[in-house]
Design brief:
Order of helices and strands: HEEEHHEHEHEHEHHHEHHEHEHEHH
CATH class of the largest domain: Alpha Beta
Shape: globular
Number of strands: 11
Distance between the termini: 20 Å
Number of helices: 15
Helix content: 25-40%
Strand content: 15-25%
CATH topology of the largest domain: Glycerate kinase, domain 2
Strand order of the largest sheet: 1-2-3-4-7-8
CATH superfamily of the largest domain: Glycerate kinase, domain 2
């Protein structure tokens, strides 16, 4: 199962999609091999942000001002000669706050500052952006001629404001309070630039705030259709048919908190579990107690297994996640789960 973030390509591969490789520039300018997927009938190409330029590549520390999404534009350009008819952009696991600026740069489209110089990548470049090449719309229309784009994400939030890309997700990508305030100002200016060029305002559309604003770029320039990541994958993997009253379903994520209630895997799966009178085991790294208690009162959750129960430090939990998870499962195991 997946919801548009990490593991989405693996979920597609499990239902017959073909994985291919290409070389792209990671979120901090280093090249690496990355995978993309083609549907069994060859009609759909899927690019996973997490695989191309996700936060998993920031092994040392977060880089909220420098991390970018150029790899998405590079990948789209490289696969544009293929015969696919529909593009799936799987937007989750993002490292950046660049509003999709990097996507344009990866496509070879220039964005300039007030002096006419090309801006850098990342939020630092977004803060200097003053003009987008007017040919950008025509360039992207040519690439997408006769094709459609679909934005698949667990995030349905708008681009701006208290529930937007910077306010909601900026902190987890490394922005402090001052950084988030400056980032919001830059994103508001970026919205105006994009609207001026595309003649459409998608800033309040569902998914605009996904992946540091990359969703806004996709909605604006690619005319992408938004789809819930969890719902899309639940249908793909046949979850409704696979789960019945005899099932015990394991589900979860890194941290179960308020964001878990906004379209991620957990709640849609729990809805099916409840409907089918099955049982659920929640597995996570950590959780917000209030959110967790709310879920337990609403759904047939038999147990909660968390890395945080191990007593280890957060860094130890992350670096040894598989082993810690196994230990916690074994310590918690009850026959009554099944």
């Amino acid at each position: 199962m997946a919801d548009g973030g990490d593991g989405s390509l693996a979920a597609l591969a499990s239902v017959g999609w073909t994985l291919n490789e290409l070389k792209v520039t990671g979120p901090l300018d280093f090249e690496h091999e990355a995978k993309f997927a083609i549907s069994p009938d060859g009609k759909i190409a899927a690019l996973e942000l997490s695989e191309l330029c996700g936060i998993k590549y920031l092994t040392a520390q977060l880089s909220p001002n420098e991390a970018h999404t150029r790899a998405i534009g590079e990948a789209l350009l490289k696969i544009s000669t293929g015969s696919w008819q529909e593009l799936w952009l799987l937007l989750g696991g993002s490292a950046s706050n660049d509003g999709g600026l990097g996507i344009l740069q990866g496509l070879g489209i220039q964005v300039h500052d007030s002096k006419g110089n090309a801006v850098r990548s990342g939020l630092s470049g977004l803060q200097q952006a003053a003009r987008i090449d007017e040919r950008s719309v025509a360039i992207i229309k040519e690439i997408m001629r006769g094709r459609k784009a679909v934005l698949i994400s667990d995030v349905s939030s708008p681009l701006l404001g208290s529930k937007g890309a910077i306010a909601t997700f900026g902190r987890q990508k490394g922005l402090d309070r001052t950084g988030r305030l400056r980032g919001e100002v830059a994103m508001r200016r970026w919205r105006r630039l994009v609207v001026d060029v595309t003649k459409r305002d998608e800033s309040k559309s569902r998914g605009a705030g996904a992946a540091g604003g990359a969703g806004f770029l996709a909605l604006s320039f690619l005319s992408a259709e938004y789809r819930s990541g969890a719902s899309s994958f639940l249908e793909l993997v046949g979850a409704h048919e696979a789960i019945d009253a005899q099932s015990t379903v394991f589900t979860g994520e890194g941290r179960i908190d308020e964001s878990s209630l906004s379209g991620k895997c957990v709640v849609p799966i729990l809805e099916i579990v409840k409907k089918k009178s099955a049982k659920a085991i929640l597995v996570c790294g950590s959780y917000d107690e209030g959110v967790l208690n709310g879920l337990i009162s609403e759904y047939p959750i038999t147990a909660v297994v968390a890395l945080s129960h191990s007593g280890l430090t957060k860094s130890e939990q992350i670096s040894n996640a598989a082993e810690v998870l196994y230990d916690q499962l074994m310590k918690s195991f009850q026959k009554s789960w099944f």
